[in-house]
Design brief:
CATH class of one domain: Mainly Alpha
Structural class: alpha/beta
Largest sheet: 5 strands, mixed
CATH topology of one domain: Tex N-terminal region-like
CATH superfamily of one domain: Tex N-terminal region-like
Number of helices: 29
CATH architecture of one domain: Orthogonal Bundle
Length: about 725
């Protein structure tokens, strides 16, 4: 914002739109401008924002960015029109009062530099005055032929009356097509009453298999679901479909023409009616079609990105199995199953390859190898990737554990994105001497121990919990995913002495470069013993320390509070609390009985208000509490290994892998997820699948229908 007045107007506008107070919005803007991060503001500046949560803070941040972008575009438009000498006081006011980018661009269109058009050529031939005369629709001072004769000029490319009239009508048609009220009216009409249509392109029917639902499809623009629009647009991008928007053209023209040709007695009214047809067909409708599809695409993108964000959050926040020795198995057939052992901290210990699956069928050798590894390293968990040969490998491990009565928990783990991480530069730096398949097995094991810590190393688009994530706006998708990762990492907290560069990068105030510096400092100087040692890390200044410190944990360090969400800036408050109970801060940490005796109002001062004090007391009772749920493994039916084993009415346990606007997908252990349609998610009506299903949920479903050839399974939770 350039002035205090503009800032005040923007602040009030955001407050009204989000139904929060002016004071709250102003406080958030000032905190953001001071370089504070959203996680930090949400957790440690509740007094300033009066308790706004992360969602509200993000909404304010987004609206602020949108309004700043609109203000910048207005300035550009005003400058452009002014330089053309066409900026009147009325136009300035219209532009300044624009509330959105669409309205602004509509106003700017007549003044926007454009490619050479029919109207441009006509103006060059001196026909603008004739066009102005036609637009006025006032009685002519001379007969029609004499009026036209005045503009005939062979040297300018106007050899006769017909050429003069046609050129002027081209200017009129373009003028009408750029008139803001007309464009706004038609766009609104198309969004409300238009039909989005898709047809297969000529000669492409044989290739239309994946888009068979849309080879001749029509759907209301106002009601089309995001996933269907994105599917149609994908078909268009593939060169299979042609997408358009249709209106009842005859009815639209019956409404439009009287607005344009308002003087029926005008000598050129018949010709102007023809220009109206031309303006609508050649200019207005194609532009409207483009605008409608753009707006629908933006809306579909927002919905798809929102769905992806929700699913990613659930996956990242999945219950961790914890710091236990884990065996990771990346299943395979011909090349065998890669096995890796990691200790409770995720450190790589050993690896090998076993061949219990076809074609080798070496179950005895595989059994001997796994037993040796389990006993040697005291393995407590086995993580099996859910890709190729997973059910066969799972069955083999199941029999081994049951045969030897081993107290080891076996879990099927999603492999999505693991191969991409395994081949990445990051994985190469961590394990330069290991094959990519072994790195994959290590990643699978770590995913079970701590999904969040391992999944942040992989591009979220590759994790497989989205809806057309490769078809949406990549910039907006990246922004959403980065926010989700940042939110999850900071809500859980990060072990400063174990965290990888990607995990540290997501901590408030740090970022990739500082994360690298922290890890390098840790490698050179050993473990951090307290948070303040962070200030010795190169280029990590006071602001970065302020933003990050509360989200970093140090286990077994010199300061017990460093393993909690209590921020170092409030350690003095904790000392006062301990003193009031005649004890020391160390005795207060983790002592719920003592912390319950503290009265929040007794510790409020000018710097820290009640919200912060209440948070401190809660954190003292349960320091470093993990917000994620308790770990539980899904139990697949041992008799069901492939889609051929399924039968209608089977009741199976599975895990939700993806939630979309039309339902949820559930892994029931047969390599192909089953779809639970939105109508089958619950006994009651479900408007949004996210209300009753989340990625990672363990559910019981009944098989409804199996299509083996097309690899489609339908299931229900209604039983």
């Amino acid at each position: 914002m350039t002035t205090e007045r503009e800032l005040a107007i923007t602040t009030q506008s955001i407050a009204d739109e989000l139904e929060v107070t002016h004071h709250q919005v102003r406080a958030v803007i000032e905190l953001l401008q001071a370089g504070n991060t959203i996680p930090f503001i949400a957790r440690y500046r509740k007094e300033s924002t009066q308790g706004l949560d992360e969602i509200a803070l993000r909404a304010i941040e987004d609206l602020l960015e949108k309004k700043q972008a609109l203000a910048a575009r207005k300035a550009t438009v005003l400058k452009s029109i002014d330089e053309q000498g066409l900026l009147t006081a009325e136009r300035r006011l219209q532009i300044e009062q624009c509330a959105d980018m669409q309205s602004l661009e509509t106003l700017y269109l007549p003044f926007k530099p454009k490619r050479r058009t029919k109207a441009t050529v006509a103006r060059e031939r001196g026909l603008q005055p004739l066009a102005d005369l036609l637009l006025k629709q006032s009685p002519l001072a001379r007969p029609k032929h004499e009026t036209l004769d005045a503009y005939v000029n062979a040297s300018l490319g106007v050899p006769d009356r017909e050429s003069a009239l046609q050129g002027a009508l081209d200017i009129v048609a373009e003028y009408w097509s750029e008139e803001p009220r007309t464009r706004t009216w038609l766009l609104k009409l198309a969004l409300e009453q238009g039909q989005v249509v898709s047809k297969v392109k000529r000669g492409k029917m044989a290739e239309a298999g994946n888009f068979e639902l849309y080879v001749d499809h029509s759907e209301s623009a106002s009601k089309i679901p995001s996933h269907r629009l994105l599917a149609m647009l994908r078909g268009e991008s593939a060169g299979i479909l042609r997408i358009g928007v249709q209106l009842d053209d005859d009815w639209v023209l019956s409404q439009l023409k009287p607005k344009l040709v308002y003087n029926r007695q005008f000598e050129f009214s018949q010709e102007l009616n023809g220009a109206a047809d031309d303006s609508y067909t050649r200019l207005l409708m194609p532009a409207t079609e483009s605008s409608v599809l753009q707006q629908l695409k933006e809306r579909a993108d927002e919905q798809a990105i929102e769905t992806f964000g929700k699913n990613l959050r659930e996956l990242l926040m999945a219950a961790p199995a914890g710091p236990r020795v884990t065996m990771g198995i990346d299943p395979g057939f011909r090349t065998g199953c890669k096995v890796a052992i990691v200790d409770g901290t995720g450190k790589f210990m050993a690896n090998t390859t076993i061949y219990p699956t076809p074609p080798q069928h070496d179950t005895s050798g595989a059994e001997k190898t796994l037993l040796e590894l389990i006993h040697k390293f005291d393995v407590e968990l086995i993580a099996i990737g859910n890709g190729t040969a997973s059910r066969e490998t799972d069955g083999f491990v199941h029999q081994l554990l049951r045969k030897h009565a081993l107290p080891v928990t076996k879990v099927m783990v999603s492999e999505s994105g693991a191969s991409i991480y395994s081949a990445s530069e990051m994985a190469h730096q961590e394990f330069p001497d290991l094959d990519v398949t072994v790195r994959g097995a290590i990643s699978i094991a770590r995913r079970l121990q701590d999904p969040l810590a391992e999944l942040v190393k992989t591009d979220p688009k590759s994790i497989g919990v989205g809806q057309y994530q490769h078809d949406v706006n990549p910039t907006k998708l990246r922004k959403c995913l980065d926010r989700v990762v940042e939110s999850c990492v900071n809500s859980v907290g990060v072990d400063l002495n174990m965290a990888s560069v990607p995990l540290l990068s997501a901590v408030a105030g740090i970022g990739p470069k500082l994360a690298e510096n922290i890890v390098e400092f840790r490698n050179c100087n050993g473990k951090f013993t307290n948070r303040h040692e962070l200030t010795r890390v190169p280029k990590l200044g006071k602001k970065a320390f302020e933003q990050a410190a509360g989200f970093l944990r140090i286990r077994g360090g010199s300061e017990p509070l460093d393993n909690s969400a209590v921020h170092p800036e409030t350690y003095g408050v904790v000392s006062r609390m301990a003193k009031s109970l005649h004890t020391d801060p160390r005795s207060l940490v983790g002592n719920a009985t003592l912390s319950q005796k503290l009265q929040p109002d007794s510790f409020i001062d000018e710097q820290f208000g009640r919200p912060t004090i209440v948070d401190i007391i809660a954190e003292l009772a349960k320091p470093g509490r993990d917000p994620r749920s308790e770990f539980r493994a899904v139990q697949f039916d041992a008799t069901v290994n492939s889609i051929q084993d399924l039968k209608p009415n089977m009741i199976l346990e599975g895990v939700i892998t993806n939630v979309t606007h039309f339902g949820a997908f559930v892994d029931i252990g047969v390599h192909q997820d089953a779809l639970i349609h939105i109508s089958q998610l619950a006994n009651e009506f479900v408007k949004d699948p996210h209300e009753v299903a989340a990625v990672g949920d363990i559910v019981r479903v009944k098989v409804v229908e199996i299509d083996v050839e097309r690899k489609r399974i339908s299931a229900t939770r209604k039983f």
